[in-house]
């Protein structure tokens, strides 16, 4: 039990680390850690040792611990989380916060050490096309194990909470992902790609099958649009799916690869005609929240998660999972400029308080304080 007046000690593991921000979990860790420190919480973040050339012990008040991993495609993350969990359980930390449902089985370690834990389980990893066979079975099993061994399950959308209730009969606390609002961006930043304001549609995300960039590209190429389709993102390894997309030849297609300059990325969002969101299996998606916060007209795949985020059509249109539907949506968008202008003007209203980082941090702090009061029982 935490002594009254004692500073709460929280560690975070399961991400690449801090301040490594290119990714959803990493952004959560950054935004959450910095706000918790300001609320007088001692925060420790476990970092992938191999990803950091310089290894300061502390950045912005966040204590950093660099742990090793078995550096293979399938074992890097899991081995890093395992080692980090053991280290955390042997420390004087009060609460352990884990991200990624793949780390579900490691909750048994913290249970043995009587360390209070919470886990953000994110999306439906077992359905993602990249995890086939044993990979899919592992993530389904790991997600089930998370519900058995962790004290608090956290989901980032109401739809995902319902799925965990249906599949695992386990309630969870919903804490949405956050975003920052921006009212303007430098238009000069997009000129490096030869782009002008509203001269292009935009996709942002990893080039993996469940983000459906292939479907959107196919539908776009079948349209008569004279705009470009700008695809931001890649994968950090050789991949047949990503290579096939990048090898498509059409003067209207532009692949930028990763855009690591946040001002360039913000400008790409701000000045697009419309943002295409094809993500299929996540909960609250960071790229979608950026699109809302940056004032985009949004065209999204029709899923229960995207319906929730766009408030059932208030902040965008939906397309079905067919290339023909994408083509029809492009035609509808290009012949309805007034509607898209309205979407842009009201997009930021979609970032209700639940999607504000300050609100998100306060909700997590409430969970951590409550966990810190518990005495763990085996």
TrEMBL record:
Q: Which Pfam families match?
A: DUF1972, Glycos_transf_1
EC numbers for this chain: 2.4.-.-
- SUPFAM superfamilies of this UniProt entry? UDP-Glycosyltransferase/glycogen phosphorylase
Q: In what residue span(s) does the DUF1972 domain sit?
A: 9-179
Q: Which domain of life is it from?
A: Bacteria
Task: Answer yes or no on keyword Glycosyltransferase.
Answer: yes
Note the InterPro entries from the entry. DUF1972, Glyco_trans_1
Q: What GO MF annotations does this protein's record show?
A: glycosyltransferase activity
Protein name per UniProt: Glycosyltransferase
Native organism: Mariniradius sediminis
